[in-house]
Design a protein that fits this description.
With 311 residues, this protein is of the alpha/beta class. The mean pLDDT is 97. Helix 1 (12-23) links the parallel strand 1 and strand 2 (27-32). The chain has a domain at 3-172 and 215-240 and 278-292: NAD(P)-binding Rossmann-like Domain (Rossmann fold). The chain is built from nine helices and 13 strands. The chain has a seven-stranded parallel β-sheet, with helices on both faces. The chain has a two-stranded parallel ribbon with strand order 7-10. The structure holds nicotinamide-adenine-dinucleotide and uridine-5'-diphosphate. Residues 77-78, 173, 185-186, 189, 201-203, 208, 210, 246, 268-269, 272 line the site of uridine-5'-diphosphate. Nicotinamide-adenine-dinucleotide binds at residues 7-8, 10-14, 32-37, 57-59, 72-76, 91, 113, 115, 171, 173-174.
Length: 311
């Protein structure tokens, strides 16, 4: 049995990760300040004696004896991370320093939840890990993008200077049950709007693309990365290469929800990336043939069922 710390464990991805790690027989400590996460996401785990919940902010140091750390604490939706940009970058940078310091002290292996946002508005398509990205350092998205880029740097530096055992995954857009209905991300927005019969808000002309991954595929990839061979630290892309325009996504959701909603077009936010698609050859090679299993259609059906039950 391993003792595992999951920061941001009460969030969308973190709650699925905690559940899976518990199911595999580990002891899990879930640390969260509930900025975007909620106790509701993990209430079904509370009866498990091997599950522990800690209210804590990763910008402050935290000490605990653990074998592994998954560092997920950080708001992920543009609406939430732009709400308090200084706090967002502090969370990424100071959170990384505090968790890496902890990993160093107790000799834990530590995985960073990085993001496809490190590629910015990519000039290379699709994006391999070797691409250094095209990020605006002073725009609305910079608090998140640059915070996550700096966190990757810190991970590498703790590895090279202090021999900390690190793993870095670059996560592409992920969706599924327990997304916050209010968090403003495109999949949750469109589903909630479609179920309520409200206008579907497509930003720009809707030709920008994203590649959407179902949360179970991500969790599988993260766990495989944590258990990957010594000497492989990434970064590695974890995403589903199926690429869709936002208009295609809107139409698919309208169809699957049998909704009467109409599409409305709103201005494209500043620095919104025009395209995004992961190259996943490295993940396949290093993570034991990891491959996303759940196509968009199937994942959307599960996610729509979830939102039907909560809104
Ligand atoms: P989320 O907002 O649902 O979860 C983030 C969690 O971190 C929340 O529970 C929040 O309360 C917690 N948190 C925020 N600031 C904190 C702080 N200072 N101290 C302690 N806890 C804090 O988002 P998510 O989609 O579950 O994302 C989880 C991680 O995965 C994030 O690091 C995000 O950047 C990364 N990621 C997610 C996606 C995606 O599409 N979901 C894509 C790329 C990267
Ligand atoms: N988007 C949209 N309507 C919405 C919310 C988002 O058209 O109601 C677009 C947004 O402009 C972006 C894409 O959907 O091009 C994905 O946005 P999201 O916030 O989910 O993630 P990110 O931009 O961080 O990839």
């Amino acid at each position: 049995m391993k003792r595992i710390l999951v920061t941001g464990g009460a969030g969308f991805v973190g709650s699925h990760l905690c559940e899976r790690l518990l199911n595999e027989g580990n002891e899990v400590i879930c640390l969260d300040n509930y900025f975007t996460g909620s106790k509701k996401n993990i209430e079904h785990l509370m009866d498990n004696h091997y599950f522990e919940l800690v209210r804590h902010d990763v910008t402050n140091p935290y000490m605990v004896e653990v074998d592994e750390i998954y560092n997920l604490a950080c708001p992920a939706s543009p609406v939430h991370y732009q709400y308090n940009p200084i706090k967002t970058i502090k969370t990424s940078v100071m959170g990384a320093i505090n968790m890496l310091g902890l990993a160093k002290r107790v000799g834990a292996k530590i995985l960073q939840a990085s993001t496809s946002e490190v590629y910015g508005d990519p000039a290379v398509h699709p994006q391999p890990e070797s691409y250094w990205g095209n990020v605006n350092p002073i725009g609305l998205r910079s608090c998140y993008d640059e915070g996550k880029r700096c966190a990757e740097t810190l991970f590498m530096d703790y590895h090279m200077q202090n021999d900390v055992n690190i793993k870095i995954v670059r996560i592409f857009n992920t969706y599924g049950p327990r997304m916050n209905p209010q968090d403003g991300r495109v999949v949750s927005n469109f589903i909630v709007q479609a179920l309520r019969g409200e206008a579907i808000t497509v930003f720009g002309d809707g030709t920008q693309t994203r590649s959407f991954q179902y949360v179970d595929d991500l969790v599988e990839g993260m766990i495989r990365m944590m258990n990957s061979r010594d000497g492989f630290w990434g970064p590695v892309n974890i995403g589903n290469p199926g690429e869709f325009t936002m208009l295609e996504l809107a139409q698919e959701i309208i169809k699957l929800t049998n909704s009467s909603s109409k599409i409305t077009f709103l201005p494209l936010p500043q620095d919104d990336p025009l395209q995004r698609q992961p190259v996943i050859d490295l993940a396949k090679k290093e993570l034991n043939d990891w491959d996303p299993k759940i196509p968009l259609h199937e994942g959307l059906v599960k996610t729509i069922d979830y939102f039907k039950s909560v809104i």
